[in-house]
Amino acid sequence: MKLAEVSWVDAQSILGGVDTVILPVGSTEQHGPHCPLGTDHMTAEAVANIVGDRTGLPVLPVVAVGVSSHHRQFPGTLWVRPSVFRDYVSDVILSASSHGPRKFIIVNGHGGNTASLKEVAEDLRSDEDIFTAIANAFPAKLDGHAGEDETSVMLHLRPELVKMGKAVDTKQNEALAGIRMKAQKVGPADFGWDTIDLSPTGVFGAAGKTIEATKATAPHGEEIVKAHVDELCAFAEELKAAKLEDLLPKPHK
Ligand SMILES: [Zn+2]
């Protein structure tokens, strides 16, 4: 059930009758010369809606702009500051919670949002007694940004928006990408790279590898989505069944 499609009268009984709700979150940012800017939020929304239909959980409207300033050199990319993003997502959840639900599953389509979402989840649990789990809209291991896997997912979900004639295979700038990979080996520290520093096309992935967006196919995308949705549904059922008091902090001052 999509919350935005029902009246307040129906919302009253729906939100009063469940304690778990899904919030899709994504971004509006470049996804190579061939995929739409909305790739991440469209995927998050589509995956969240499938999970919502299968589990009976309500789905909130998608948060379509996220933490994406590292794509700023590519026209059309939109972003908000992490502090604004955290406040916004937090307020969306708090407002939904005021109608009843206390458990939330964020289905996140954009890796750049993850650090901020973790802070939101920690604060909501500590300060508001609201439990928020952050799930990815994509499986953890994809070949890269706007590469074969992500492009395949879009060919499955929104084929009319993908321009395969414009897809390119890309090997990223090895000097910077290599340093980034080595920095990640010695610690969690990263540096403030922009995508364009790594890749002129916006398609990028592991250093030393050519990311082959041109190999994308709809059946491959369907496989990725199906396997991941099965896992998300299983997780949603578990969270639904979990007792709120088992998820919240012990009494504290
Ligand atoms: Zn993406």
Task: Briefly say what this structure is.
Helix content is 44%, strand content 11%. It has 253 residues and is α/β, with parallel strands linked by helices.
What key phrases describe this protein's structure?
binds zinc ion; globular; two-stranded antiparallel sheet; 253 residues; alpha/beta; 44% helix; Rossmann fold
Give an overview of the whole structure.
The protein has one domain (3-247): Rossmann fold (3-Layer(aba) Sandwich), CATH 3.40.50.10310. The chain contains 9 helices and 7 strands. 42% of the residues are buried. By secondary structure, the protein is α/β, with parallel strands linked by helices. The chain is globular, with a radius of gyration of 19 Å. The strands form 3 sheets. It has a 3-stranded parallel β-sheet with strand order 1-2-3, sandwiched between helices. Strands 4-6 form a two-stranded antiparallel sheet. The longest helix has 24 residues, at 218-241. Helix 4 links the parallel strand 2 and strand 3 (131-136). The chain is 44% helix and 11% strand. Helix 2 packs across helix 5 (148-157) and helix 5 (148-157) packs across helix 8 (218-241). It has helices spanning 8-16, 39-55, 82-97, 114-128, 148-157, 174-186, 195-198, 218-241, 244-247; strands spanning 20-25, 103-108, 131-136, 144-145, 169-171, 204-205, 210-212. Bound molecules: zinc ion (ZN). Residues 31, 39-40, 145, 150 line the site of zinc ion. Zinc ion is lined by residues 31, 39-40, 145, 150.
